[in-house]
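Exercise: predict the structure of this protein bound to zinc ion.
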Amino acid sequence: HEGMYTREELKELVAYCAERGIEVIPEIDVPGHNEALAAAYPEFFCFPDHNTKVSTTGGVGLYLVCPQKPEVWKFYAAVFKELKDIFPSKIVHLGGDEAPTELWEKCPLCRQARAKASMRDEQEQMRDFFARMTSLLAKNGQTPQFWYEGNAGIYHPGETVYAWRQDQARQSIDKTKKAGLNLIMASNEYCYLDFPQIQGQYNWGWMQTTTLRKCYELDPAFGKSPQETGHIRGVHAAAWAEHLPDLNHLLYRVYPRAMAIAEAGWSPMNVRSWDNFRRKVADHRAFVLKRFNYDLERTKENEPPFRWENKK
Ligand code: ACM
Ligand code: ZN
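Solution:
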């Protein structure tokens, strides 16, 4: 609904990160989270709506691109090619999360395609859709990653998915192992850094308070044995920007919790110590505040409830 990066700005960001040993992985979420696409290209969707409005808050929409429209595939082929030119990473995160299939179920073209391919349901169609997206990426030497949605059957062995849904990590570890998938741990009750970190901070009516200590307690293996968790590749922290009004506020939410998630990623449970970690955070505090030119007073002014509309 607002804001964009130019190709040059993105290249500058990628170069800045590369100098610091950071690989930037772009995400193009398919087939859902696509309201802006639906407003720009209504013809890509099962039931084109030329009055689509892009919402200014987070949430789950019903718009999924229609896999039966050839222009959709032409569009993504062009997008992935352009990404390749900007991001040297071999990985493209394809999202795949929060994609309710109601409209695929009703769409005459989708129905016909499912019948023709003897697909039992829309989940089989999702599996086929991901496979086609993966082939498109492969033409540029790119491979996909996905948000894990609980049905391991829609992904393909060898692929990497992120466990993100609250309180589903344990079962996700087991199901992804059985399906031959790699897993990155991003369980939101530990790893979502746009959530409030202190009791009383604004939470949009639904976010759990996620204290520094809670983040530090993340065990990426959730107590399971090395045999059960050899497919876990690492940890991931998320900071969803629609909940954060500006860069200062983003830093306020991300630090110091990002340090806790990083330590969860690189230190086995038997060497973890909350007291030791607290000492390290205290040492880093001044550095972080200064390095990011981070203004605690301004952060208070920006404490939600803000709305994007009111900022203009
Ligand atoms: C997600 O938070 N929808 C991955
Ligand atoms: Zn359709």
